[in-house]
Amino acid sequence: MTGETSVSLCRPLSIRGRTLKNRLVISPMCQHAAEDGFVTDWHIVHYGKFVLGGAALILTESTAVAEDSRVGIDDLGIWKDEHIPGMKRLADFAHGNGALMGVQLAHSGRKAFSEPLWEGGNAMRPEEIERYGIPWRRVGPSAIAASPEWSVPTSLSVEQIQEIREQHVSAARRADAANMDVLELHYGHGYLVASFLSPKANVRSDAYGGSLENRMRIAIEIAKGVREVWPAEKPLFVRLSCVDGTVDGWSLNDTLVLAGRLKDVGVDVIDCSSGGLSEETRRSNVPRGFGFQVPFARCVREEADILTQAVGLITTPEQAEEIVASGSADLVAIGREALRNPYWPAEAERQLTGGEEYRAWPVRHRAWLDKREPVMRRLMDEARGTSQNEGNEGGQ
Ligand SMILES: Cc1cc2nc3c(=O)[nH]c(=O)nc-3n(C[C@H](O)[C@H](O)[C@H](O)COP(=O)(O)O)c2cc1C
C-alpha cells in the first residue's frame, strides 16, 4: 500500500529506521515446540505462514534470556550464541517476503516452567522439572509465590538482578546478530519484571522495592541496558500489563508513569496488555469483551505521548481499522485470530480497500487469485441470479 490510502490500518508506519508496511502485528504466542531453546521446523512453518499472511511485523513467542527461567521447557531461547542461526532463518525469511521480524525477550521469574495449555497449563512441580535434567529456578523480588500451585521463588540479590539485566543485554546483541528488526521486552503477565512492578509481589525494602520509583528500577535498567546495545535504527517495544488484575496492585496510573520513563530511555512502543500476576487475576477485574484492552492503549498513547500497540479480542477488520483511525493505538496485534487464519491481515486489507485485489498476498499467489477474480464474480452473479429466480418462482 502507499502512504496515500484512506484506510488507516493500511498506512505504513516508520519507527526509527524500520517501516512497517501496515499496522498489523502478530502477537507473541508460546508454541512449546523448541528443543533446548532452538528454532525447529515447527517455528519455520508457524512464523513463515504469518509472514505470507500479510502482517507488517511478526513477534516471536516469549524467548528466554536465561536457560533456567523459561516459561515452558520447550520455549524458544536466546541465551547462547548457538541460537542465532535459527533465529536468523526466521528473520531472513520475513525480509525476503516483505515483513519485519521481532523477538519478545522474556525472563519468567516466579512463573518459570508451566505446562502447555493442552496439558493443563499448570505450574510444573519441581520433581517434574528435575526429570528433564536442566538447570531451573523460580525467582522474584520477594519470596511470595504467584499462587499456591507455584513453588515459592527465591528472592533475588542485587547482584543477581544485575546478572539478569546483563542476560537481557546479551540476548539483545544476539537478536541483532540474528537480523531481527524489533525487540519486545516482556514486562507483563506476571513474569519477572511484572512481579517487581507490583506491590502485591514485591515487598523488598532495598533499592528495588517499596516506592514506585524503586519497583520500576529493574524495568528501566533493563530497557536502558538493552537500548545501549540495540541499534539506534531498530525499534524497541515493551509489553506491559497495564493493570496487573489484582486489587491494590499495579494500576493504570503506575503504567502511565512507567511508560514515560521507558520513553525517556529510548523505548518506542508500549504494547498494552493486562493481568497475569497471580491467582487473583483469574477473577480479573478487566472484564473480557471485544477489544477490552484498547482503552489502556488509548490512555497510554494520550497521556504518556508514546506509540502504542493494542491487543486482545480484536477480531474484525472494521474493529482494527477503528482502533487506528480513532487514535486509540498506532498498531494492532492479532493473536488467536491469526491462529485461526494466518491470512487474516491480508484479508483485512482486501476487505477494507474494497475487495478488488489480492495486493497483500505473496506474489506467487497474487496473480493467480487476481486472475480468478472475474471468473468468481461471474459465477457468483450467476448463482445469485439463479437463486433469485428460484426465489421468484417460489413466491408466485
Ligand atoms: C497460544 C498463545 C500463546 C501466548 N503466548 C504469549 C507469549 O509468549 N507472550 C505474550 O506476551 N503473550 C502471549 N500470549 C498472549 C497473546 O500475545 C495475546 O496478548 C492474547 O492472546 C490476546 O490477544 P488475542 O485475543 O488476539 O488472542 C499468548 C496467547 C496465546 C493464544
Q: Supply the helix-strand structural class.
A: alpha/beta
* Structure ligands: flavin mononucleotide
Radius of gyration, whole Å:
22 Å
CATH homologous superfamily classification of the largest domain: Aldolase class I
How many strands, which pairing sense, and closed or not: the largest β-sheet? 8 strands, parallel, barrel
Low-confidence stretches: none
Read across the widest sheet, the strand sequence of neighbours is 3-4-5-8-9-10-11-12
Question: How many helix segments?
Answer: 12
3D shape: globular
Mean pLDDT figure: 94
Report the end-to-end length measured between terminal Cα atoms. 49 Å
User: What is the name of the CATH architecture of the largest domain?
Assistant: Alpha-Beta Barrel
What portion of the residues fall into strands of 2 or more residues?
A: 5-15%
Give the H and E element order: EEEHEHEHEEHEHHEHEHEHEHHH
Q: Might you state the CATH topology name of the largest domain? A: TIM Barrel
Count the strands? 12
Portion in helices? 25-40%
Q: What is the domain total for the residues? A: 2
Return the CATH class of the largest domain: Alpha Beta
